[in-house]
Amino acid sequence: MGLFAMLAAIAAVALAEHGNLRGAAAQPWDYANFHVGDWQKKGYPLCAGLPALPEHPHNEWQSPIDIPPRPDGAKARADDGEGLQLSAEGEGCHRVRMEHNGHTWEANFAALGCTSLVATWKGKNYTMQELHFHVESENMLGGHHQDMEVHMVHQADDGSQLVIAQFLARSQAVDEENPFLNETFRLFEQTYRDVELSGMLMNPYAGLLRAGEEFYSFLGSLTTPPCTSGLEWIVMREPTWISPGDMDSFEEYLMSPAGYQADSYGRDDRPVQPLNGRPIALGSISATNFLGGGTSGAPALSP
Ligand SMILES: [Zn+2]
Fold first, then answer.
1. Ligand 1 center to residue 134 CA distance, Å?
2. Sign of the alpha-carbon torsion through 40, 44, 50, 54
3. Percentage of the chain modeled with pLDDT above 90
4. What is the C-alpha separation between 284 and 152, in angstroms, rounded?
5. Which domains occur in the chain, in start order?
């Protein structure tokens, strides 16, 4: 079935109206003035990145960062046999909350009870909660931004969090486009309600990750208020494609009154934060516990 036909087969059923998932904030925040550090002044003290806070060790390890192309931790991979391995499993979700939340576009799985997507990292299982987008990329690589970045936010039973990040590069040709992103953006453009995918599943692992793919891993923070630190970060080395039209529609949203981003120049990326000596290691996606289909030609919403 062609992508268009597959998309046409999606029955997007509005399940419920919903409010802002992020709950009551200390004060409204935006991206307009954050480069002068105003988030901490609006009631989010962790965003200042001060070290040695009693309940937040290594709060100085904030995100995003500029990843050195050859981090010191790279040698750990050779020293450690198989190296750091991530596994990512699950069939995907039938029900997804498609949210335009004023800061980004977010597809939320946990809000509708789907716990199917599980990443195993350093012996702990993390369940995917939601994914969302940034333009331009938040993390940098060797001093360079990519066009966009998608964050897959996971949480373990003990409350600890893991973000799996994938860089997105604006494609130049139709055959370079990513089917998962194409179809996900069609949903964002059609609706911002809870949707039920009739007879299909949304699986970001299958759509975005590849077995054997290498990544950088390090400790960091939420890149939005309250900037909570101590998060595990995994950033894939190689970008996947985003279509120019999808990128344009997301940027238009950020510049629209609905995005509350009229002063942000159509961007929603926090500037990179100091490395402050944090270790950065290389790892790869385990080939054995991975159900994903790869980034090229993989059906995003599989039957
Ligand atoms: Zn993010």
1. 6
2. positive
3. 54
4. 17
5. 61-295 (3.10.200.10)
> Chain-centre distance of CA 14, in angstroms?
24
Q: What spacing in Å lies between the alpha carbon of 132 and ligand 1's midpoint?
A: 6
Expressed in angstroms and rounded, the spacing between residue 259 Cα and the centre of ligand 1 is 16
DSSP code of 118? E
69 with 170: CB under 8 angstroms? no
pLDDT at position 158: 97
Distance from the alpha carbon of residue 80 to the mean position of ligand 1, in angstroms: 30
Structure tokens at 288: 């054995």
**Would you state the pLDDT for residue 82?**
57
Residue 299 CA, ligand 1 centroid: distance in Å: 24
Q: What residues in the chain have per-residue pLDDT under 70?
A: 1-25, 30, 32-37, 52, 72-82, 191-192, 259-265, 287-303
Q: What is the reported pTM?
A: 0.84
